[in-house]
Amino acid sequence: MKQTSINLPKVIYRTDQPKKDGSNSFYLQLHHNKVKKFISLKVSCTKDFYDEKNNRIKKSHPFSEQYNLIIETQLFKASKIILDARIKDEPITINQFLEKYLGKASDNNKMNFYSFVESEIEVEKKRANKAPLTIKKYTYQLNKLKEFRSKLEFNDITPSFLADFEEHMRVTLGNEKGGSNNTLKMIRKFVYVAIKKDLTSNNAFKDFQIKEDSTGDIKFLTLVEFQKIKEYYKTLLSGHKHHLTLKSFIFSCCTGLRYGDGKKFKLNDINSNCILIKTQKTKKAVSIPLIPLAKEMLNYDLDAGLPNLKTPCVQTCNTALKEIAAVCKIDKPITTHYARHTFGCIALNNGISRETVQAIYGHSTSKQTDHYAILNNDTKVAEMEKLAAVMTL
Predict the structure, then answer these.
(1) Of the candidates 388, 259, 365, the residue with the CA atom closest to the CA atom of residue 320
(2) Helices marked H in the chain — which ranges?
(3) What is the pLDDT of residue 363?
(4) What is the SS3 assignment for 178?
(5) Quick one: which of 59, 175, 190, 344 has the most CB atoms within 10 Å?
(6) Co-location of 37 and 91 in the same domain
(7) Is 390 domain-assigned?
(8) What residue ranges of the chain have pLDDT lower than 70?
């Protein structure tokens, strides 16, 4: 986000808000990030005393000299505050300007980063289009940040602070790259919102880059690993502690549904052997044909007409999946999101077109789907065998 400072103030004679005596007031007008702020100069006159050419009060007014001096003095004072900041190469927001100009801190400047984010989360809770899981994710990420630093002002968020926090998440908490990146993106999102609202001019992300995972970092199970999971599932009785987690995980591997969509999915979302659902994250309607294995994961609930998978909470699922990986001797830190990735990678490695996978995922562009086009070694060998058949001596 580009850092800008306030434009130099202008004197405005406002005729849109006349006083009871018919006079109109003079204001200083400030402009920053498409936001206008008017500061009353406590000077007014009727239109017949307004000098439009010079934007001041006519000399014929009995107090023209005093009033014009007030206007000039306040204009100089405001301009000096902004120019001093420019000379120091320090961006200044409207709230910071008002603190210097009025000689007192505004209520907004008393707000630290945590109280600001919490107030924004409350606002987002009231938005009809904001998924509950998104709100829950923000709260979880904010609590993780609070555990690292109990008090946090906007100016405390520096590139070095972000680097230290990222190391803490990766080394101390054992977060994967995607998890730590998502938390950093949450911080960046609310820093940008605060900048837009003129609560701060501090943008640490100008000098701190969130390094995205490369395509090769997509976390998924190979077909062989998925078969191990499936075989383990067959050995479980319905009351086993891993049963519900695996049932939900295998279903997502067969459909590409995110954990949140699988949890809210109901049996009446099935029509003509297809799941018809609006995804929580993108709000897009997707149609997903059900393969036999996916139907098998639902058979236990079809007669009862209950929510289909009785999916445990995400923390319970992720704990169980780590245990399952150990039992199946899969050396990967499996989480619920592995299922969605596994669907895409296995589908693309077994002849399903990218257009089909894109439609099932609800991706807007093929570029998003391309992240899952990771050829496993078996696919490469099979493709090279085709080449070997025609490149012979």
Answers:
(1) 259
(2) 64-87, 94-102, 113-125, 132-148, 159-167, 177-196, 223-234, 243-255, 259-264, 292-302, 314-327, 337-349, 354-361, 366-370, 377-390
(3) 75
(4) helix
(5) 344
(6) yes
(7) no
(8) 1-5, 104-111, 128-131, 213-217, 299-309, 367-393
Structure tokens at 293: 């294995």
| H or E element at residue 285 | strand 285-289
We report the CATH number of the domain holding residue 278 as 1.10.443.10
- The 3 state secondary structure assigned to 5-74 is CCCCCEEEECCCCCCCCCCEEEEEEEEECCEEEEEEEEEEECHHHEECCCCEECCCCCCHHHHHHHHHHH
Cα–Cα distance for residue pair 42/73, rounded to 1 Å: 13
Residue 308's SS3 state is: coil
CATH of the domain at 206: 1.10.150.130
Q: Does one domain contain both 313 and 330?
A: yes
What is the residue whose two structure tokens read 């709000």? 283
In a domain, residue 218? The reply is no
Separation of CA 257 from chain center: 20
Q: Is residue 232 part of a domain?
A: yes
d(CA 37, CA 374): 53
Looking at the fold, whether 169 and 38 belong to one and the same domain comes out as no
Do 104 and 116 share a domain, yes or no?
A: no
Q: Strand 285-289 relative to strand 35-45: parallel, antiparallel, unpaired? A: unpaired
Per-residue model confidence (pLDDT) at position 271: 81
Answer yes or no: are the C-beta atoms of 290 and 274 closer than 8 Å: yes
Q: Which of 213, 231, 263 is the last residue of a domain?
A: 213
- What range defines the domain where residue 244 resides? 223-383
Tokens of residue 342, six digits? 């596994």
Q: Could you tell me the pTM of the whole model?
A: 0.52
Q: Last residue of some domain: 108, 124, 154?
A: 108
CA distance 145 to 114: 9
Q: Which two tokens stand for residue 127?
A: 């938005």
Task: Tell me if 5 sits within 8 A of 94, measured CB to CB.
Answer: no
For residues 370 and 243, membership in a common domain is answered with yes
Domain co-membership, 339 together with 233: yes
For residue 269, which of 233, 294, 244 has the smallest C-alpha distance? 294
